[in-house]
Write a structure and sequence with these properties.
Layout lengths: L1 E6 L8 E6 L6 H11 L19 E4 L2 E4 L9 E4 L6 E3 L2 E2 L2 H10 L13 H6 L11 H5 L11 H12 L7 H7 L13 H5 L6 H14 L5 H10 L14
Parallel strand pairs: 1-5
Antiparallel strand pairs: 1-2, 3-4, 3-5, 6-7
The structure holds iron/sulfur cluster (2 copies).
Length: about 240
């Protein structure tokens, strides 16, 4: 069976595609391991648990994000590194954005509430807690083409997890941190929801965060600027009665 891998290393200026023959009926991860053992020990990719739990082996297969350990190889599949970040070598990418966005959203317990937690409370954060930080959603998101500071689907899903967590006492602090480059910058395209291997729905999570933001008095600043413009407000200081 033929497998194509988009490769890159700093000694070659441009990425290039290389073809390999591998055994039938196996996962993409096992095929990559086979290539590394039989053809090229320098082939670089990430993997950990090999059972879909650690989230480290996400790649793009024919342009769509997949966990290499959970996806079977088909004839002529093209395997590439995930999108929206720098490729370090072959399928290994720079993941420094991951910590940066989580820290910016403050999506972690900061002020512990003493409230008692029921199983109903746990259910509220159950699905979002299953995120394995595989970065598939990040890779599929079109917003990074225009804004590489966008907090993005996994960090916003995690923000909702802590906003809904009864143990977290500073929910407003999290909402405050996701206004700029956050909930309002999402186009609601749904790519992130389609590719998530954990069946998380970041698009709906972002819509929920928008609703919670509005309830706390926040608004989409781009829309409020538009409304001011439409109502005749002239940001230069004058008043335009025609609203344009
Ligand atoms: S939300 Fe889903 S796709 Fe995104 S990082 Fe978490 S597990 Fe991966
Ligand atoms: S729904 Fe929003 S966060 Fe998800 S991929 Fe589309 S633009 Fe990105």
């Amino acid at each position: 069976m033929k497998l194509k891998i988009k490769r890159f290393n700093e000694s070659k200026l441009e990425p290039y595609i290389e073809e390999f023959n591998v055994t039938h009926n196996q996962t993409i991860l096992n095929s990559l391991i086979e290539v590394k053992i039989k053809n090229d020990k320098a082939l670089s990719f990430r993997c950990g648990c090999r059972t879909g739990i650690c989230g480290s082996c996400a790649v793009r297969v024919n342009g769509v994000e997949r966990l290499a350990c959970k996806t079977n190889l088909n004839e002529n599949d093209l395997i590439e590194a995930i999108n929206n970040t720098k490729v370090i070598k072959d399928l290994v990418v720079d993941l420094s954005h991951e910590e940066k966005f989580l820290k910016t959203t403050k999506s972690f317990l900061k002020e512990l509430s003493k409230e008692e937690i029921t199983s109903k409370d746990e259910k509220l954060i159950d699905i979002q807690s299953n995120c394995i930080l595989c970065q598939s959603c990040f890779s599929s998101c079109p917003v990074y083409e225009v804004n590489n500071e966008f907090l993005g689907p996994y960090a916003l899903t995690r923000a909702l997890r802590y906003v809904n967590d009864k143990k977290e006492n500073d929910k407003n602090g999290i909402l405050e941190n996701i206004q700029d480059n956050g909930v309002w910058d999402c186009t609601l395209c749904g790519n992130c929801t389609i590719v998530c291997p954990q069946f998380i729905d970041p698009k709906t999570d972002i819509m929920n965060l928008r609703m919670k933001s509005v309830q706390e008095g926040y608004e989409d600043k781009s829309l409020s600027a538009f409304n001011s413009f439409d109502s005749g407000f002239d940001p230069s200081g004058g008043f335009n009665p025609n609203g344009f």
